[in-house]
Design goal:
By secondary structure, this protein is an alpha/beta fold. It has 10 helices and 13 strands.
Length: about 325
């Protein structure tokens, strides 16, 4: 099982970079960034770093870990532009990018910035086509596509990614349409939820795969919850209402990870939103990756101690 950290883009850049650097130095597998322009909760005027700018800086300065948006809002960028951005980021990172893509949902930023937010059906129809456009541009020498919303006409897209097949992660849990799109296009699928949610929705995904003749084992699965390991989470940090949360001892959280594994989850993503900053966050990250995740890790190497000391300075 993989374990990745998800620093908040509402943090100052220096804090985000510290979390990413410490993760790379201590055996974590990935670093994710949210693609939003403003907070969702009112008054919504707090800071928010732009996702791909942050990821480019991480790609150039932080070694080893996989990186990607969790997830890109399809409403924010034309998929041809997004494909070019992903391919370029793959070069900057040396081939470590996972392109996360979703339908888009946050109403307040669409309203504030004048970005059209279609109804759910319209957003999902556009997401389906956007996946086709991105896949064509990442994979084909020249691309042609004629859809309801997007068109490619003998379109080049060079350079191609370093990876022979840059993975496409699709985020969302809608069982009728979203998971059908996942079955068709995704290399990885991500959603919020505790193990019982992932197991139930995973079964739906498998039925969608069966309907189109695709092996569901070809789609990796990832999930995130807010973790509160006894003695490590920062009680001064605001609780995130509405997000699945797992609290408990090392043994209790290991039991949860076992249930994730039984639900066929390949990667667990840990938001840092309730872990504080500086030494408190580093301690929480270390306890989680060493004590909680230890029995489930894939044997990813740590860097030398000197790298960790630099990251923790």
């Amino acid at each position: 099982m993989r374990f990745s950290i998800w620093p908040a883009t509402s943090e100052p850049w220096e804090d985000f970079l510290e979390a990413a650097t410490h993760a790379a130095a201590t055996g974590w597998d990935g670093v994710w960034a949210a693609d939003h322009f403003m907070p969702a909760a009112p008054p919504a005027d707090g800071p928010m770093l732009e996702c791909f700018t942050v990821l480019s800086a991480v790609a150039a300065t932080v070694p080893r870990v996989r990186i990607g948006p969790l997830v890109t809002g399809n409403t924010y960028r034309h998929p041809t532009v997004l494909a070019k951005m992903a391919a370029t980021l793959d070069h900057v990172s040396g081939g470590r990018v996972v392109l996360g893509l979703g339908a888009g949902w946050q109403q307040n930023e669409h309203a504030a910035y004048g970005i059209e937010l279609h109804d759910v059906a319209g957003r999902l129809a556009r997401l389906d086509e956007a996946c086709a456009v991105v896949r064509h541009l990442l994979d084909d020498a020249r691309s042609n596509f004629e859809g309801r919303f997007y068109t490619l006409t003998d379109a080049p897209a060079e350079p191609k990614p370093i990876q022979a097949h840059l993975p496409l992660l699709i985020g969302g849990g809608g069982e009728k349409v979203t998971l059908r799109i996942v079955a068709r296009w995704a290399d990885e699928w991500n959603t919020w939820g505790l193990p019982h949610v992932l197991a139930a929705k995973g079964a739906v995904l498998e039925r969608h795969c069966e309907a189109i003749g695709r092996d569901p084992a070809a789609i990796a699965r990832s999930a995130q919850v807010l973790f509160e390991l006894d003695g490590t989470w920062d009680p001064q940090m605001p609780r995130r209402q509405g997000f699945p949360t797992a609290s408990g001892s090392v043994a209790e959280l290991q039991e949860l990870l076992g249930a994730f594994s039984e639900a066929k989850v390949h990667e667990v993503v840990v938001p840092d939103w309730n872990l504080g900053t500086g030494p408190a966050r580093r301690e929480a990250m270390d306890r989680f990756i060493e004590e909680v995740a230890g029995p489930f890790r894939e044997g990813r190497p740590r860097e030398d101690p000197g790298s960790r000391e630099t990251a923790s300075a």
